[in-house]
Amino acid sequence: MNHADLPSLPESGAYGPQVCAVMRLYLAVLDDVPAEQVRLVFEHIHTCPACAAELHLFTRATQLVSGAANLEPPPRVDQAVLRAIVARSSTRPPEHLRPLRSHHASREHHFLWLIGQVAAVGMLLIAIMAVYLLAGAVTAPRVFALPANLSWSGYVLFYRETKVGVNGTHYRVNCYHDLSTGRMHVETIAGSNLDIVVVGNDQILLGKDLIHHVAEWDANAWSVDDSIFNLMQLRYDLQAHRAVYEGMDRFEGQEIYRIRWKNGLVLLLDTSYWPVNVLRDSHGPSSGQPIYKMLTWLPVSQVPSTLWDIRVPAGFRLGSLPAGP
User: For 76-106, what is each residue's pLDDT tens digit?
Assistant: First the structure.
């Protein structure tokens, strides 16, 4: 870039308001001037606190604008910049109306005009930065973090939901999930013709057909995926922005936190950070369908130990359960 119109740099060791004014002109174009001129500018800055502060402002402004470069400015930013440029241009008389003047006066005018341009650019830069930062403050995701000491262990999560099978059959599913051990007890019922129970954990799973007295190991088709209630995974997903906090809302008369999770599901936590339900097809506050007809937390001591029995019951034969709901 050609900066031949810049005034000459003062000699090394020179001080005063005029010297600082020239140095600050060079600060605006420091990346585009020869290394020798950069050396002289920094030599002055090292002994001039005012110019050093000016350099800090230039550097900070550059960092802020660079950081905001990925933000798409609202339409009013473009409009404000355009108006500023038009207003700035309209203050300069047309070329054919400018009077002739001496070479010295012309250089002096050009120098003053250059200072004015730098000042105008600085003001415009500050205005643009302010709008960018305000826009970022409006659109930035809300800060949300689960308490470090939060734990859902020591309780059994019980929920009830209704599912529709591939053939249109409606199934009622009751699930007990011990979050401390990972044990699950899932019962799927469809009228009087089907009653399947699966018991186990991630390593072993036993399915039992309570109507036909048939048992099958690894009956995964009759298990459920409630990984949305994995507290450790939820922490990681929030930190990695795979789960996004959407703010507070109300659900069934109580205040809740909304967390959008994978597959478009929205996890609802009460103000003590315990799950109260999960929504599907939610497109904003007070919208969506709750997945669970009931969801509650039971102390482990209140849940019969027989729920976790993973032995093949007496009178059952090993075989194959139906394909799945």
Answer: 545 554 555 555 455 544 444 444 444 445 5
If one counts every other C-beta atom within 10 angstroms of the C-beta of residue 246, the result is 16
In angstroms, the CA 220 to CA 216 distance is 10
The DSSP result for 250-314, as a single string, is: EETTEEEEEEE-GGG-EEEEETTS-EEEEEES--STT-SEESEEEEEEEEGGGS-GGGG--SPPT
| CA separation, residue 170 to residues 133, 173, 185, 322 (Å) | 52, 10, 20, 15
Task: Report the C-alpha gap between 65 and 126 in whole angstroms.
Answer: 10
Determine the Cα–Cα distance for residues 272 and 90; give it in Å rounded to an integer: 60
pLDDT by residue (tens digit) across 46-81? 788 787 777 766 655 554 544 444 444 555 545 554
| Separation between Cα atoms, residue 288 and residue 277, nearest integer Å | 11
DSSP type of residue 133: H
